[in-house]
Amino acid sequence: MKPPRKAARDAILGAGPAAPGTGKPDEVDGFEMTPHGLFKVQHDQAGKPKGRLFICDQFETLAECRDSDGEGWSLLLRWQDRDRKRHTAIIPRALLAGEAGEVRARLAAGGLTISTAPAARAALAEFLVHQQPRQRARTTPRTGWFTTDKGAVFVLPDQTIGNLPGGELVLLEAPGAPPAIYRRAGTLDAWKADVAARCTGNSILLFAASSAFAGPLLNLLGEAGGGVHLFGKSRAGKSTALHLAASVWGAPTGHAPFMRSWRATGNALESTAAEHNDTLLPLDEVGQVDPRELGEVAYMLSNGQGKGRAMRDRGTRPPITWRVLFLSTGERTLADVLAECGKRPEAGQEVRMVDLPADAGAGMGAFQNLHGAANAASFAETLNSAMRGQHGTAGPAFLEWLQPLVAADPAWGAETLRPRLLDFLASVLPGGADGQVRTVARRFGLIAIAGELATEAGITGWKLGEAWAAAVACFATWLAARGSNGAREDMEALARIRACLSADGQARFEVWKDRHAAPEAQADMEPPPEGRAVMKRLGWRRWVPDVAAPGGGTWSFYFTADGFRECLGGLQLGPAARALAVAGHLRLGAKGTTVTVRIPGVGPVACYQVHASILAGDDAVDGADL
Q1: SS3 for 6-65, per residue?
Q2: Does residue 558 sit in helix, strand or coil?
């Protein structure tokens, strides 16, 4: 599949190397642009020319640019360095309002020779200020979809997929020189045969590769960003799966790899996420991230917005924004990493960064079908070797197929893809699944649809239904590992109360002793009282005999409101109590989740009555009942 010629881009930037002397910028009185450079004509006191001042090497002013809102006006320049390599740069006009030092630095970094004479510096800024080329272009600060009322195109650093009506060009505007992470090698057919074909029969590999095609669909379906984290023991195939996903868009490893590392600050990951906007952000080895930042970074990547920052003029610089699906790997889960600094994951964090076991269950780590390889290690090496020579072709080819559909009908995503997403949800969600489970199912469904679309486009070579089945299998693995289809907060409430009773069921609960009962009745009602004081009391415990089994019985625990709140550790009391009641571990009162009991020697107390059955660990909390 050969991408069609980008007529608008080639008309401005040129399809081949630029030749010296072909630039024809708008003429400015008193300046001369020649093959030898830009000069300013100098005059004597009588107004007669007396010589020329060298300013810089020759360059071309190709177009005048502005963003989608008509702001951020800039100039698109092109020149050749002494190695005859062509460079382009977008120069904001705002930088010409001062001394233009940053402009000169950008041009010099690209090999343009610039005079250091003060008069030449001022002359360069003057010349650029007066440039008004007829050609217009739009700029965007990030890769991905660029949509106007006239159409939609997809912008990559070196390529714009599609054309806006009228041939208006859309360019990526990035500070400095953006890394060439969208590199290509080999051909799509070779990638399909040597890389994609080996995914067949391997659900995790199919899922990882499909996730690489899901980024462009986020905007079309109005879905929020988020990620999937493959975790498991070392040498289990996690990195191979991540390399596979990265190979859809660029080189997995080597110089300027498409795969990135968790070993970065949250601030650095903001720019990284913008570079991967609407494609895929592969992040390797979560163990390298600062545990104190991981939870916030998971929120940040999914929410698609960085921090607002103050500027020198006391204004606020607009935050960096993006829309990205990220795929992560590591030996530990989100909870494991956060535990290093004494934190527990919030439900929102676990939904935004989904922990998926990287063990496919065939005894070969992430692999199930080795396609003739002697062992898993040999299979991984063969696949990684193929990806080093074949990468970066599948993603652009998928966009070439997708963009015309979006441009022709802006509602195509909602009308065509949403019914397929609803079909996926109907096929995998158990009855009464909580909203958190549905959110994760939507992400897996988006990945399933992306893999199927790439197959329909002739990109993968897989059979129809393979990507879908792999996403279904991975979702089932995630749900089984999670242990419930209820809300994470409900599961956490049961776990915290169980841990509290396991650790302090005797030490911090005073034995309930009815002093008015006859001694022989007391013996039948409860074990002998304990002759010790209870420190930092959480409540009381009472022995409840089993009338069907003489001599048997069980404890019932009566938490005070403060004791219940302490054990929950910040979770809300009402929802937590209801979760315990649904699981059959808490007795509901006549008017709510507490019961009013008369404690001997204390009087009436509103308590949360929890049964000892919670210690058995049966937490079947169904979201439909809450």
Answers
A1: CHHHHHHHCCCCCCCCCCCCCCCCCEEEECCEEEEEEECCCCCEEEEEEEECCCEEEEEE
A2: strand
**Domain assignments of the chain as residue spans, ordered by start:** 7-172, 188-482, 488-625
Q: Which residues of 148-170 are buried (b: 16+ CB within 10 A; e: fewer)?
A: eeebbbbbbbebbbbbbeeebbb
Residue 491 is encoded by which pair of tokens? 């599961």
Q: Which string of DSSP letters, residue by residue, matches 470-522?
A: HHHHHHHHHHHHH--SS-HHHHHHHHHHHHHHHHHTTTTEEEP--TTS-HHHH
92 to 98, 246, 577: CA distances (angstroms): 12, 33, 59
Residues 6+ apart with CB under 8 A from 436: 347, 350, 351, 487, 488
C-alpha radius of gyration, the chain, whole number: 32
Residue 466 to residue 479: CA distance in whole angstroms:
20
In three-state secondary structure terms, 126 is helix
Torsion sign across C-alpha atoms 591, 595, 598, 604: negative
Coil vs helix vs strand at 362: coil
The two structure tokens encoding residue 143: 């890769």
* Overall pTM surpassing 0.70 (yes/no): yes
For residues 11 and 221, give the distance between their C-alpha atoms in angstroms, rounded to a whole number: 33
Strand, coil or helix: what is 138?
strand
Contacts (Cβ under 8 Å, ≥6 apart) of 29 = none
Q: How far apart are the first and last CA of the chain?
A: 52
Q: What is the DSSP letter of 274?
A: H
Tally of CA atoms within 13 A in the half-sphere of 428 that contains its CB: 29
Please list, in sequence order, all residues whose beta carbon lies within 8 angstroms of the beta carbon of residue 37, skipping any fewer than 6 positions away. Answer: 54, 55, 56, 57, 58, 113
- Give the bridge partners for 321, in sequence order: 305
Longest Cα–Cα distance in the chain: 127
Structure tokens, 226: 């988020």
Name every residue whose Cβ is closer than 8 Å to that of residue 304 and which is 6 or more positions away in sequence.
224, 225, 273, 321, 322, 323, 324
- CA pair distance 11, 6, nearest whole angstrom: 8
Specify the DSSP element, H or E, that contains 303.
Answer: helix 291-303
Residue 137's beta-bridge partner residues?
A: 65, 169
Specify the amino acid at residue 150. K
Helix, strand or coil for residue 310?
Answer: strand
According to DSSP, residue 608 is labeled: E
Cβ(337)–Cβ(289) below 8 Å: yes
Q: Give the per-residue pLDDT at 235.
A: 82
pLDDT along the chain (626 residues), means of 10: 49 49 60 94 78 94 90 94 92 92 94 95 95 90 86 89 83 64 96 98 98 96 94 90 97 91 80 92 88 86 76 62 94 86 79 93 95 96 96 97 93 93 96 90 98 98 98 95 81 89 91 58 48 83 81 88 92 89 90 90 91 77 40
CB-based burial, 372-390: b 16+ in 10 Å, e otherwise: ebeebeebbebbbebbeeb
- Two tokens at 562? 């403060």
What residues pair up with 357 in beta bridges, in sequence order? 231
Task: Report how far residue 399's alpha carbon sits from residue 2's, in angstroms, rounded to the nearest whole number.
Answer: 12
What local confidence, expressed as pLDDT, does residue 345 receive? 76
